[in-house]
Amino acid sequence: MSPDDPRTHLERILAGNRLMTLLQPVLDLLEGRVMGYEALSRGPSNSPLHAPQALFHVAGQHGLMTALDWACTRTAMQTFARLKLPGQLFLNLTPGSLLDPAFAPDALLAALAVEDLEH
């Protein structure tokens, strides 16, 4: 595989923790407040995998969807904790990842504890 191969490029992004998370407010319109934030994952800005469509397409093509979902989850938790935002963090996961042992409740609770987000 060449270094420009999409799979190789994605593997480098994952290995280097080069994903980024944007946090979009989720509003409670009845109460007129921000109730939390939805995590939106992106590849590095200078990458052909910056757009989520490209990022997740390559992951799906090469059997890396669960690895990408887990990396997105960790990055989202780290970003949310670093910014000390109020409310809940909403994550999007693929159905296959939800069935993977990597996303077992104990694994997710341990990841939350690492980022001090278990409340």
**What class would the helix/strand composition place it in?**
alpha+beta
> What's the helix-strand series?
HEEHHEHH
Radius of gyration: 15 Å
Q: What would the principal axes of the Cα set say about the shape?
A: globular
Poorly predicted ranges (pLDDT <50, ≥5 residues)?
A: none
Report the average pLDDT across residues: 91
* H/I helix tally: 5
The order of strands across the largest sheet is 1-2-3
Q: Strand tally, please?
A: 3
Helix content: 40-55%
Q: Which range does the strand content fall in?
A: 15-25%
Q: Report how far the terminal alpha carbons are from each other.
A: 44 Å
Largest sheet: 3 strands, mixed
Quaternary structure type: single chain
Structure characterization notes:
The chain has helices at residues 6-15, 52-61, 65-83, 95-99, 105-114; strands at residues 20-28, 33-42, 88-90. The model has no long low-confidence stretch (mean pLDDT 91). A 3-stranded mixed sheet has the order 1-2-3. It is 45% helix and 18% strand. A hairpin with a 4-residue loop joins strand 1 and strand 2. With 119 residues, it is of the alpha+beta class.
Summarize the structure.
With 119 residues, this protein is α+β, with helices and mostly antiparallel strands. It is built from 5 helices and 3 strands; from the N terminus they run αββααβαα. The longest helix is centred in the middle third of the chain and has 19 residues, at 65-83.
Notable features of this structure?
single chain; alpha+beta; 45% helix; 119 residues
